[in-house]
Amino acid sequence: MDMITYAGHAAGAIEPPHAFRQRMNSLFRRLARTYQARRDLKVLRSSGDHILNDIGVSRSQLDDALNAPFWVNPSQKLARRTPLFRR
């Protein structure tokens, strides 16, 4: 008998289906969080200057964070640039 495993794939040739599913789920969850953060920062960007001053962030910092590629979470980029947001 040759080295055929599940679903007719050669042993070790590809990841098991559950590992692939887990990686895809992780990717989709991360993209969903990034999309939500981007939406939230866009709402914050449309806020008044007094609100932005109260939380210690400038409109240019928000614009810079929102100019990141779609797969980069803009809130994480903003946190790296804004000392107030650091934990």
Features:
87 residues; mainly alpha; single chain
Protein architecture, described:
This protein is 60% helix and 0% strand. By secondary structure, it is mainly α. It has one domain. The protein has 4 helices and no strands. 7% of the residues are buried.
Furnish the topology, listing elements before pairings:
Blueprint: H1 17-45, H2 49-55, H3 59-66, H4 74-81
Helix pairs in contact: 1-3, 3-4
Order of helices and strands: HHHH
Give the low-pLDDT segments: none
Number of helices: 4
Rg calc: 21 Å
Number of separate strands: 0
Helix content: 55-70%
Classify the secondary structure makeup into a structural class: mainly alpha
Q: Could you tell me the strand content as a percent range?
A: under 5%
Taking the sheet with the most strands, its summary is: none
The coarse overall form would be elongated
User: What is the CA-CA span between the terminal residues?
Assistant: 57 Å
Number of domains: 1
Average pLDDT for all residues = 82
Summarize the structure.
The protein is mostly helical and 87 residues long. It has helices spanning 17-45, 49-55, 59-66, 74-81.
